[in-house]
Structures are given as C-alpha cells and as structure tokens.
Design brief:
single chain, about 260 residues, mainly alpha, 13 helices
Length: about 260
C-alpha cells in the first residue's frame, strides 16, 4: 500500500499535467497511505516512508489548490507539515528536509506569510544531521533567495551542486542553474564571474525539460547583465516556448521589470 501510494504521487508529478487528473492521483495516494497507517506498521522504516509519502501528496495538493480556496490550501499544508513532523521528530534528516521545503513552499508558492523562519530552522537541522545533504542545501538556498540574501543563496546552491555531483545525483544540473540565478542577482558581477557562470552552465545536461527551462533563464540573465539584449530575449523566448507553466512566474516578472 505504501509503495502504491508513492507510485500515485509519482504519476501525479510525471504523468499528464492536467490538474484534475493529478488531484485524483494524489487523492488515491492519500487513501492508500492512510489505509497502510491503519495497519499499525511494525517496521518503523516503512512507517516513516508512509508519512513522507503522505506529506508529499498533501504538499502537492496544496500547490494544485493555488487556484482554489485559501482554506483548501491551508488544510493541505497543515496536513503535509503534520506528516513530515512525524518523521522529523525521530531525528530523520529526510523528515527535516521535507518539513523545511514545505514551510518554504507554503510562504513562497502558497503566499502565506510567516513560514520562512520555520523553513530555515528545519533545513539547518537536516544539514546538522547530514552534512552532505544536497537537497537540504538546495532548499536552504531557496529560503535565502526568497529573503533577498543572494550571496548566501549562491553559497548554499553551490554546496548542493558539489554534493549532488559527488553522490551521482542527476539534480546537480538544476542546482547549477539555481546557483547561477542567485549569483546574477548579487551586486558582485565582474566579467570573470559571468564567464565562469556560462562555462558552468555549458556543462549542464539539459535533457530534462525543467532543467532546460532553468538553464535558458540563467543564460538569458547572464546575457542581460552583459547588455546583450537580443541574446537575452532569445533565451527567454525559448524558455517560455509552449510550456509557460514550467516557468517561475515571479522570476519572469523580475526580468520584465
């Protein structure tokens, strides 16, 4: 049941991008996980996994509910946080990382103020318990970015890149894009840094669509900072393409401004 629930969450994320279909998959995941938890699982690792999957499903439902009511958004974030806390309180780094990510999304994507401090605290605990945790560095970098502290954001994204590469994670390309985005928002942008950014981005494997979009945005911002407007516009236009939902709308608004 737990693995079936996890499969439904994966299907919601990697299957057809139709909100009603995704919501059905996530609801199915929640139903399976709740049934599994009612069995009073004796193997604790599976119980932790069940709560992580349950939290992920509610977190994704909160994101899908952004066009719905605030009550629905809050309910799903509350349930996601409660599930992740079940794991975090047992000193499992994954629980703290997911908890921090959820708090971050609640404020930044759910537009509910007052959760970045909680996000930072949870992510710092995750890193304290696992020093080489790329995902925790990635989300802590995002917290600093949301606070406008781009130097610390870039520092943490860079650590996420390093540890992801060391562990053979395919996410390092995405983290590289986040690093570039943060660097380009700082005030320290000599030509040598911009050259390093382009060199690092040139090595990113952009076969994944989301990575490709973030790569185009980062390269576009690099050209923009150099005053190469036509090259920047070309990158942004390609990024928008026919899949605008994949683009960070706030980022694009900053570019337009």
């Amino acid at each position: 049941l737990v693995h079936l629930g996890d499969s439904y969450v994966a299907l919601a994320n990697y299957g057809p991008k139709e909100s009603n279909v995704q919501a059905e998959h996530l609801t199915s995941a929640i139903d399976r996980i709740k049934k599994a938890l009612q069995l009073n699982l004796r193997v604790f690792v599976y119980r932790d996994f069940a709560y992580v999957v349950l939290g992920n499903a509610h977190e994704d439902l909160a994101w899908l509910a952004q066009v719905g009511s605030d009550e629905e958004i809050s309910k799903n974030y509350d349930q996601a946080i409660a599930a992740f806390k079940k794991v975090a309180e047992k000193n499992v780094p994954l629980g703290n990382m997911n908890l921090g990510r959820c708090y971050y999304k609640r404020e930044v994507e759910g537009h509910q103020k007052g959760y970045l401090a909680d996000a930072k605290a949870a992510l710092e605990i995750a890193i304290a318990r696992r020093k080489d945790y790329p995902e925790a560095y990635r989300w802590l970098g995002a917290v600093y970015e949301a606070e406008g502290n781009y130097d610390l954001a870039a520092e943490h994204f860079d650590k996420a890149v390093r540890f992801a590469k060391e562990q053979g994670s395919y996410n390092h390309g995405l983290y590289e894009c986040y690093w570039a985005r943060a660097i380009l928002e700082t005030k320290k942008q000599p030509a040598s840094i911009r050259a390093e950014i382009l060199n690092r981005l040139n090595d990113v494997d952009a076969q994944d669509e989301k990575v490709h979009k973030d790569l185009l945005l980062a390269v576009g911002k690099t050209y923009e900072n150099e005053g190469k407007w036509q090259e920047a516009i070309k990158q942004y236009s390609t990024a928008i393409g026919d899949s605008p939902k994949l683009i960070d709308a706030d980022l694009l608004r900053r570019r337009a401004g």
